[in-house]
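Async update (no meeting this week)

Hi team, since we skipped the sync, here's where things stand on the single-chain job. The sequence we agreed to prioritize is pasted below, unchanged from the tracker. I ran it this morning and attached the output directly underneath so nobody has to dig for it. Comments welcome in thread, and please keep replies under the output.
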Amino acid sequence: EVQLVESGGGLVQTGGSLRLSCAASGFTFADYHIGWFRQAPGKERERVSCISYDGTKWYPNSLKGRFTISSDNAVNTVYLQMNSLKSEDTAVYYCAWQSGPGTSCLWLMATMDFGAWGQGTQVTVSS
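Output:
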């Protein structure tokens, strides 16, 4: 069974930074796509970033330069470094997994068709 556990959320001031972690288990970590999403109250789920087992990364234009995704295969964890945080970054952040070959971050982020999701971690940016 695939399990994803997010951590690292919290309260931060505008302009600050946070690093979220997505600890994964139950699948071969050498063969994956892991995406990050966020959802604020009353809003639709928003695409944040994605990383594939081959190192390919995806970001929406709106977040490029502020958010950075990375992975550490040795500890089966994907990270999301968030800098220059703004109040509009406040949301619950989720990571999601899909197995590797035959798909891509580009496709998965367009369709949100991931096979497993974490429970989420709250990020609150205060002014």
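Quick observations from my side:
The mean pLDDT is 95.
Residues 10 and 123 are 5 Å apart (CA to CA).
Reply here if anything looks off.
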